[in-house]
């Protein structure tokens, strides 16, 4: 390309310029699409919100028996602990009640590893 040659212009569109009517129609179409998008997103949000509330309600309703059983078990544990604390804590009492402490040590030598190897 020589210096005196005209460079081709790069423009966003190769279509001829639009008139006033084309611009107005383009703006109107953009506004309609924007309103339509907001409307659809609001409807989708409302649908998901209602579905989430319904799912939470169903889960809450179906687990009511479990919650009641847990509450009664916690109450029994509190009452048993209060009785146990009132009577005093000694080791003989803990052994009779089934409380146990498990302790242990593991001693590993290098010979154990060598025997397993082929």
Summarize this structure briefly:
The chain is mainly α and 118 residues long. Helices cover 68% and strands 0% of the residues. The chain is elongated, with a radius of gyration of 39 Å.
Order of helices and strands: HHHH
Q: Which class do the helix and strand fractions yield?
A: mainly alpha
Helix content: 55-70%
**Count of helices?**
4
Q: For the CA atoms, what is the radius of gyration?
A: 39 Å
Largest sheet: none
Q: Shape from CA axes?
A: elongated
| Arithmetic mean of pLDDT | 81
Ends apart, CA distance between termini: 78 Å
* Count of beta strands: 0
Oligomer: single chain
Transmembrane segments: 20-38, 44-61
Keywords: Membrane, Transmembrane, Transmembrane helix
């Amino acid at each position: 390309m020589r210096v005196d040659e005209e460079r081709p212009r790069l423009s966003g569109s190769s279509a001829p310029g639009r008139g006033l009517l084309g611009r107005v129609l383009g703006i109107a179409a953009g506004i309609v699409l924007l309103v339509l998008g907001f409307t659809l997103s609001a409807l989708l949000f409302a649908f998901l919100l209602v579905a989430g509330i319904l799912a939470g309600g169903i889960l809450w309703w179906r687990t009511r028996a479990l919650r009641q059983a847990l509450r009664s078990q916690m109450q029994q544990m509190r009452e048993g602990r209060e009785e146990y604390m009132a009577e005093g804590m000694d080791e003989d009492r803990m052994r009779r009640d089934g409380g146990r402490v498990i302790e242990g040590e593991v001693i590993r030598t290098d010979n154990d590893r060598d025997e397993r190897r082929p």
